[in-house]
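Reading a protein record of the kind used here takes little practice once its layout is understood. Each number in the token line that follows is a code from a learned vocabulary of backbone shapes. One such record is shown here in full, so that the layout can be seen directly:
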Amino acid sequence: MVAGISLIVSILGSIELYMKIQENMEVELVAQKDFYILSISIFKVLQLDDENRNIDMKLFLEETFANYQKLIENSNVVAKKIKDKLTLVDVEGNLSVSTSTSSTPINLEQV
């Protein structure tokens, strides 16, 4: 009886180590905190009146989007393909939103 329980526990422990469940949970916890900090930063800037914003908004957008892309690359947040509605595609000179499944960064010069 004890040997059977011990075998099951050791198998579950081996599976956990193989799948790196603890490591992935820690990475996701750090990513969640970083996403929260990023969202608070965006919220604080957007809640200010236009005349009280002492920063260049284009520069803020570029830095924030670069930070967002870094967070997406470093985390395991996207485990499946999602429709990327932020990807812009030039169709006959007109910018339109693509429904591609890749997460290609947008070029702010196009906007």
Summary: The longest strand covers residues 88-91. The two ends are 67 Å apart (CA to CA). Residues 96-106 have pLDDT under 50 and may be disordered. The chain has two domains: 25-78, 80-111.
